[in-house]
């Protein structure tokens, strides 16, 4: 088990690096019209990188260190802490799960449930599944460990679907239809429980930590995600140590922690590149028409938009900003501007992404220190 002192040391080391290099990650790449740092050596390296190598470097810690180690020595000295955070407990042996119990669970979700289950400590406590959805996690764990599970979920239809599956497979799983952010939702917590949460987003897992501490929950097993989905514009640190630091994190900053790329198919990757180019092309059009160079975001849209026509997207975007368009905009001209700007943004993000892991570890350690602080 990691000692409180080592938790504090790792947190302080992460905090120092994030503070030291904050100009390289605490920014909005889309808003940059040129490389935002006065660092000639970095600029020379970034501009010399072939376009086709960027994604590979972004996904490989070894390549990141090879290309940027000399420029960000303090960052890569964190490696011992980052590697230590990856050391998991010896895996628990599990029974093979029958195929009929996994029907309807996507392959990646099933892998995550399996990995989560293998890290759970031995327990005889009844289980509570937080933000359960259809209760796939709770259902498989109840079967695997032969223990009852209570699954709390705010969408009534998902509760009904999960209850039907539990009945069909004779699993001891009870659903509670409630919003975990309310008093009714938090009232399901009890001291004699093993509380489980796989991918509880932002405020949902923060609320769980705070209520579990207040309740005195005996066991708590959480995989947090989507740190940016919080109620406040700025992150409110949980632990006393984090509260003492001068590191203010916006929701945009917090998104960086979950921007680790999962390898996508060629089609999805192409659509992602197209989306960036089109959004930046529209930004160039808007700047020409209004004289306003500040980046103004657009809402998210389905990926199928970006397999269509840029002119259609441009008209939709202009409508969102109530921007009158000329009769025949030079769409091709702005597409070329968007492509050039997108190439710049990819290089800025390549540097910014070096700080994904330290920021995520800072956030995880804040949670761990909060729990340690409360015994």
What does this structure look like?
- The chain has 375 residues and is an alpha/beta fold.
- 52% of the residues lie in helices and 7% in strands.
- The protein has 19 helices and 5 strands.
- The protein has helices at residues 4-20, 22-25, 40-48, 54-58, 61-68, 73-76, 79-85, 99-102, 107-118, 136-145, 156-168, 183-186, 202-215, 240-243, 251-255, 266-290, 310-320, 331-352, 356-373, and strands at 127-129, 149-153, 173-177, 194-201, 219-225.
- The chain has a 5-stranded parallel beta sheet, sandwiched between helices.
- α10 links the parallel β1 (127-129) and β2 (149-153).
- The longest helix has 25 residues, at 266-290.
Low-confidence stretches: none
Order of helices and strands: HHHHHHHHHEHEHEHEHEHHHHHH
Radius of gyration: 24 Å
CATH class assignment of one domain: Alpha Beta
* Relative helix content: 40-55%
Terminal Cα span:
14 Å
How is the CATH topology of one domain named?
Rossmann fold
- In CATH terms, the superfamily of one domain is Vaccinia Virus protein VP39
Number of strands: 5
Approximate strand percentage: 5-15%
């Amino acid at each position: 088990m990691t000692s409180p002192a080592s938790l504090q040391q790792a947190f302080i080391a992460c905090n120092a690096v994030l503070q030291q290099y904050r100009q390289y990650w605490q920014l909005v790449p889309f808003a940059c019209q040129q490389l935002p740092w006065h660092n000639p050596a970095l600029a020379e390296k970034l501009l010399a990188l072939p376009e086709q190598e960027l994604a590979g470097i972004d996904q490989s810690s070894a390549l990141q260190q090879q290309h940027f180690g000399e420029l960000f020595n303090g960052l890569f000295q964190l490696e011992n802490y980052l590697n230590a955070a990856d050391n998991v407990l010896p895996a628990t042996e599990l029974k093979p799960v029958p195929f009929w119990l996994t029907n309807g669970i996507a392959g990646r979700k099933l892998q995550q449930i399996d990995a989560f289950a293998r890290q759970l400590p031995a327990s005889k406590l009844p289980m509570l599944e937080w933000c359960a959805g259809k209760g796939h996690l709770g259902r498989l764990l109840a079967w695997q460990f032969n223990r009852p599970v209570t699954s709390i979920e705010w969408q009534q239809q998902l509760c009904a679907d999960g209850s039907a599956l539990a009945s069909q497979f004779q699993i001891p799983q009870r659903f509670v239809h409630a919003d975990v952010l309310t008093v009714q939702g938090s009232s399901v917590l009890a001291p004699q429980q093993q509380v489980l949460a796989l991918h509880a987003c932002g405020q949902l897992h923060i609320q769980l930590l705070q209520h579990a501490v207040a309740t005195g929950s005996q066991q708590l097993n959480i995989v947090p995600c989507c740190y940016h989905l919080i109620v406040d514009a700025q992150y409110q640190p949980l632990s006393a140590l984090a509260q003492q630091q001068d590191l203010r994190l916006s929701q945009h900053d917090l998104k960086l922690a979950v921007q680790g790329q999962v390898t996508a198919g060629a089609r999805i990757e192409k659509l992602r590149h197209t989306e960036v180019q089109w959004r930046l092309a529209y930004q160039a059009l808007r700047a020409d028409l209004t004289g306003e160079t500040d980046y103004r975001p657009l809402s998210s849209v389905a990926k199928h938009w970006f397999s269509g026509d840029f002119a259609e997207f441009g008209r939709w975007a202009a409508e969102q900003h109530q921007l009158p368009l000329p009769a025949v905009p030079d769409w091709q001209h702005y597409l070329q501007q968007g492509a050039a700007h997108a190439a710049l943004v990819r290089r800025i993000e390549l540097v910014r992404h070096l700080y994904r892991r330290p920021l995520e570890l800072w956030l995880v350690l804040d949670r761990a220190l909060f729990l340690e602080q409360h015994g």
